[in-house]
Design a protein that fits this description.
By secondary structure, this protein is mainly beta. It is built from five helices and 15 strands. The chain is globular and about 60 Å long.
Length: about 375
């Protein structure tokens, strides 16, 4: 077994965790270079993490491995009926991808990505019970992926999404929640197309089914149906190369409303844990991502981008936003890549989540939560 094969088989052992995100528990971008372009990567694959954005993208990146580390920092604050709390965030999140050009028209690879949200208010004022508020949702996906080039420049991709999930809730005694941690496994599928449809112009299409997780038995008395699945989503991307410039655009639809635990209103009416029981009250998101990449020289690339989306947490459903701080869906991005050698490249990216405060209305009157986050990513890529 050669060195690349050993790395490919070892990749599922990497675990990614997170404690703050942009679009629900999802980051604005996956892959160090995509992060620098506002996440726009459905039609612009650049590394072996491409399968997270569009499985077909792995067909264009060749044999390579990529790893990254993202540091997330910032401050999140909440005020729940006068109970004021804050959390100084500092989280490190790894990412990984590996791809192998098995034949000129076939690639096989794997991408590992992390999702999640959480809060730890430390010495906090109890807001929803008798103890401090602390929450942590971590979801990891390992996506074995294969692509087939059915015509020159046109690729189909298929990913099997194998999921691991852990949930911890603390300080929610008023809702009947235990202070336990629970774990679940899940699975789903992702498919994609990537093709050159005109000189310099690429089109990407992708769809991911829900990742269906097992019941979280320690929390089935509070979570509708006891399950916290990842929602289905679909996206379209365009990328255009013009000399040293690449322009990329993505549209992504995230179907939060199909998952009862996330979509049910807190005032749904049913008992906690039932299919019609209270949830987070999230609505679907429409995400628009724009990115520009400039080849400044043979070795240096510069890039920037922006990600814009609607808030998935309506003001009338703000009661629980303080335990799931996922309400900063607009971000600005910068990045660069330096080609150290023909094989090795180093990438850096910075993302600033535009500050947003959710202020509750109606049944959520008296609740405010939000803040701002900064993310700094460093990535290494090696082509074989």
């Amino acid at each position: 077994m050669n060195r690349f094969s050993r790395l490919l088989l070892a990749s599922p052992l990497l675990v990614a965790t997170t404690a703050g995100a942009s679009n629900g528990p999802q980051y604005a971008g996956y892959g160090a270079q995509a992060m620098g372009m506002g996440g726009a990567a459905i039609a612009n694959p650049t590394d072996a993490v491409a399968a997270v954005n569009n499985p077909a993208g792995m067909g264009r990146v060749g044999t390579r491995i990529d790893g990254s580390l993202t540091a997330t920092t910032g401050q999140l604050r909440s005020n729940v009926q006068g109970a004021k709390n804050s959390d100084d965030v500092l989280v490190f999140v790894p990412g990984f991808g590996a791809n192998y050009q098995y034949r000129p028209d076939i690639t096989v690879g794997v991408a590992v990505s992390g999702y999640g949200a959480g809060i730890d208010y430390g010495k906090s004022v109890p807001a929803f019970g008798t103890s401090k508020v602390k929450s942590e949702l971590v979801q990891m996906l390992v996506a074995p992926t294969a692509t087939y080039e059915f015509q020159p420049g046109h690729y189909l991709g298929l990913s099997l999404k194998l999921g691991y999930e852990t949930l911890m809730l603390h300080g929610l005694e008023n809702f009947g929640a235990s202070n336990d941690r629970d774990y679940a496994l899940g699975a789903g599928l992702g498919i994609g197309y990537l093709g050159t449809i005109a000189p310099g112009l690429r089109l990407g299409l992708t769809y991911s089914s829900p990742v269906w997780f097992q019941k979280l038995e320690a929390h089935e008395d509070i979570i509708p149906n006891g399950r916290l699945n990842m929602p289905q989503q679909a996206g379209l991307g365009l990328a255009y190369d013009s000399g040293p410039w690449t322009f990329a655009f993505d549209y992504l639809w995230i179907d939060w409303s199909s998952e009862k635990a996330l979509a049910n209103s807190l005032t749904q009416g049913g008992p906690p844990g039932a299919g019609n029981g209270p949830g987070f009250g999230w609505r679907d998101q429409q995400v628009f991502r724009f990115g520009v990449n400039y080849h400044y020289s043979e070795r240096l690339q510069l890039r920037t981008g922006v990600s814009l989306a609607n808030h998935q947490v309506p003001d009338r459903e703000a009661t629980l936003v303080s335990i799931a701080p996922c309400n900063q869906p607009k971000s600005l991005h910068l990045g660069l890549t330096y080609q150290v050698s023909d094989q090795l490249e180093v990438t850096g990216a910075y993302m600033y989540d535009l500050r947003h405060i959710t202020k509750g209305e109606g049944a959520s009157e008296g609740v405010e939560a939000g803040g701002e986050l900064h993310m700094l990513t460093v990535g290494l890529g090696y082509r074989f």
